[in-house]
Amino acid sequence: MINVGLLGCGNVGHILARHAENFRIVAVFDIIPDRAQELAALSHAEPYADFDEFLRQDTDIIVEAASVAAVRRYGEAILGAGKDLVVLSGGALADDEFRTRLIEAARSAGRKIRVPSGAVTGLDNLKIGQISPLQTLLLRTTKSPGSLGISTPARMEIFKGMAHECIKQYPKNINVAVALGLAAGREADVELYVDPDVERNVHEIFAEGEFGDIYIRVRNVPSPENPATSYMAALSILTLLKNLDNPLVVGT
Ligand SMILES: NC(=O)C1=CN([C@@H]2O[C@H](COP(=O)(O)OP(=O)(O)OC[C@H]3O[C@@H](n4cnc5c(N)ncnc54)[C@H](OP(=O)(O)O)[C@@H]3O)[C@@H](O)[C@H]2O)C=CC1
Ligand SMILES: O=C([O-])CC(=O)C(=O)O
């Protein structure tokens, strides 16, 4: 059984706790200690208000489901402590200098940084872009205005540009764009829309290269406690944890 340390006790943290079947959450940490206490009670884990103490616990892997800021603040320490790290807030890796440092910390410690597919599909074979560069990589995301704290009567484009700029402006909403780029070996262009007529978080991926072209549309059900976060993101981490020890690896 894999011992997991959970960094971030919000919406995704709760879904993981409710479905912890082939792993055990042993330690939890959140910037808000009451949230850690509450989730610890639900998952039979120990809550920690002190991050260093959290890190000293007997965990194999730390799952980050907190924020871009949390990855930046704690990522290197987690790897340095000899733990693997699952990064859901992959937007933190848009910063070249930080990403290089984090990868170096993982290499030195002989550990892995795992970026789950999160709220999209297709990361597996978009990796062919690392071999045969993609000419086009575009993510068009549409969410409800309320999930971004915006009010508008009609569909509205709120961002158009590169992923590393978009994640600076919307760090809780477009981590998927950075993950796409990391998989494909080139940064994604992003168009971000809010639309009062959508009830789902819609991610459309357009890619083109020597291989041909791809169009993927993911129409995600928002998760119950945070409509900006798709339920699929939590399922993606559960799947990653389920397969960690599986000798059979399917998908590129
Ligand atoms: N890659 C992907 O596909 C996806 C990524 N995400 C990302 O995953 C993360 C988790 O999502 P979700 O569970 O819905 O978010 P929530 O806001 O529901 O939960 C996050 C929890 O982590 C806490 N937290 C934030 N920063 C820190 C920190 N520095 N140290 C400790 N705790 C911290 C939050 O506290 P507080 O509320 O005070 O900030 C909150 O309690 C978000 O960053 C989100 O953007 C989400 C969906 C898809
Ligand atoms: O959950 C989603 O649909 C995407 C998301 O919030 C993110 O990538 O940060």
Automatic annotation (TrEMBL):
SUPFAM superfamilies: Glyceraldehyde-3-phosphate dehydrogenase-like, C-terminal domain (SSF55347), NAD(P)-binding Rossmann-fold domains (SSF51735). The keyword NADP applies. Keywords: NAD, NADP, Oxidoreductase, Pyridine nucleotide biosynthesis. Pfam families: Asp_DH_C, NAD_binding_3. Residues 155-237 form the Aspartate dehydrogenase domain. It catalyses: L-aspartate + NADP(+) + H2O = oxaloacetate + NH4(+) + NADPH + H(+); L-aspartate + NAD(+) + H2O = oxaloacetate + NH4(+) + NADH + H(+). Residues 8-116 form the Aspartate/homoserine dehydrogenase NAD-binding domain. Pathway: Cofactor biosynthesis; NAD(+) biosynthesis; iminoaspartate from L-aspartate (dehydrogenase route): step 1/1. Its EC number is 1.4.1.21. NAD(+) binds at A119, N175. One of its GO terms (biological process) is NAD+ biosynthetic process. One of its GO terms (molecular function) is aspartate dehydrogenase [NAD(P)+] activity. The keyword Nucleotide-binding does not apply. The active site is at H203. The iminoaspartate product is unstable in aqueous solution and can decompose to oxaloacetate and ammonia. Belongs to the L-aspartate dehydrogenase family. Specifically catalyzes the NAD or NADP-dependent dehydrogenation of L-aspartate to iminoaspartate. This is L-aspartate dehydrogenase. The gene is nadX.
